[in-house]
Amino acid sequence: MKIVVTVKLVPDPNAEKKIDPTTKRLVRAGVETVLNPYDEYALEAALQLKERVGGDSTVTVFTMGPEALKETLRKALAMGADAAVMLSDAALEGSDVWATAHAMAAGLKKVGFDLLLVGGLTDDGSTGVVPGALAEHLGLALVTNARKIEVGSGSLAIERETDTGYQQVNVGLPAVLTTALTFGEPRYASLKGIMGAKKKPIEVLALADLGLGEAAGGAGSKTELLSFAPPPARGKGQVVEAADGASGAHAIFEFLRAKKLV
Ligand SMILES: Cc1cc2nc3c(=O)[nH]c(=O)nc-3n(C[C@H](O)[C@H](O)[C@H](O)COP(=O)(O)OP(=O)(O)OC[C@H]3O[C@@H](n4cnc5c(N)ncnc54)[C@H](O)[C@@H]3O)c2cc1C
């Protein structure tokens, strides 16, 4: 089974986020780039699946981003991915979600896969729209929040997590899945893995390799960011002081009633 995992390269989640007021884009210069945390969980799920299915199964990671960040993918290769593909082209700069998914789908079609695992959310853009947009562009079924994956003959039996429990879903291959965080913490790369990763291939694709013109990137974006503002500062909280639990509960109830919340 050929499993492909999308992995976005994002600024270190622990670093302070700043937006350039002129370009209205996240400032990435001077901030370490890492694998998007959600995508590490998806990669862990893919590696576990590969171990279970065995045979000639492979895991390939796929990213779209600036070529200068290519070496960040070594971590995924050190964790156990077999190969990496990066879609990188100057014309992709400024791509919105639609243009991102459009270009990524063309790249993923070229790479080919039986199963595509996509993280649920990025730490920078955080729209959560890319998985659905990718499935639409690829013309494939999308199963979100998969927490358990059983492989059948040409199909998968999936438990998908919901707010109230889980659903059992069967889907034919090829398919697109987002994974829940139930497959365990992403594994650490072993020393052997780190050494082996140095020899694993990272293929770089440009728009021309996909038969896409420059209009497919930023110029093809359908949205324009007009303005942005930080969220309003939080007001001071109100401390409820009471002699005992019952009068405290009563004071809280009156507070909520005054705000028409109960
Ligand atoms: C007008 C505009 C201009 C923009 N310009 C830029 C820009 O110049 N540079 C820039 O980096 N962003 C830019 N963005 C943001 C960019 O569109 C989003 O970061 C991108 O579409 C992904 O959306 P997201 O981060 O919300 O992904 P989500 O939908 O939250 O991601 C879900 C999952 O999709 C996968 N995924 C998403 N993006 C990628 C990726 N690039 N590679 C691999 N996997 C991925 C990951 O597995 C991820 O977990 C721009 C946005 C707008 C609206």
Keywords:
Rossmann fold; 9-stranded mixed beta sheet; 262 residues; 2 domains; alpha/beta; binds flavin-adenine dinucleotide; 13 strands
Characterization of the model:
- With 262 residues, the protein is an alpha/beta fold.
- The chain has 2 domains: 219 residues, Rossmann fold (3-Layer(aba) Sandwich); 31 residues, no CATH class.
- 26% of the residues lie in helices and 24% in strands.
- The strands form 3 sheets. It has a 9-stranded mixed beta sheet. Strands 2-5 form a two-stranded antiparallel ribbon. A two-stranded antiparallel sheet has the order 3-4.
- α3 packs across α4.
- The longest helix has 17 residues.
- The termini are far apart.
List the helices and strands and how they pair.
Elements: E1 2-6, E2 9-11, E3 19-20, E4 25-26, E5 33-35, H1 37-53, E6 58-64, H2 74-79, E7 83-87, H3 97-111, E8 115-118, H4 130-138, E9 142-151, E10 155-161, E11 166-172, E12 175-179, H5 191-197, E13 202-205, H6 245-258
Parallel strand pairs: 1-6, 1-8, 6-7, 7-13, 8-12, 9-12
Antiparallel strand pairs: 2-5, 3-4, 9-10, 10-11
Helix pairs in contact: 3-4
Bound molecules: flavin-adenine dinucleotide.
Flavin-adenine dinucleotide binds at residues 6-8, 25, 36, 38-39, 63-65, 93-97, 100, 118-119, 121-122, 124-131, 221, 223-225.
In short:
The chain is built from six helices and 13 strands.
Bound small molecules, deduplicated: flavin-adenine dinucleotide
The biggest sheet amounts to: 9 strands, mixed
Please give the CATH class of the largest domain.
Answer: Alpha Beta
Order of helices and strands: EEEEEHEHEHEHEEEEHEH
Question: How would you classify the helix and strand content by structural class?
Answer: alpha/beta
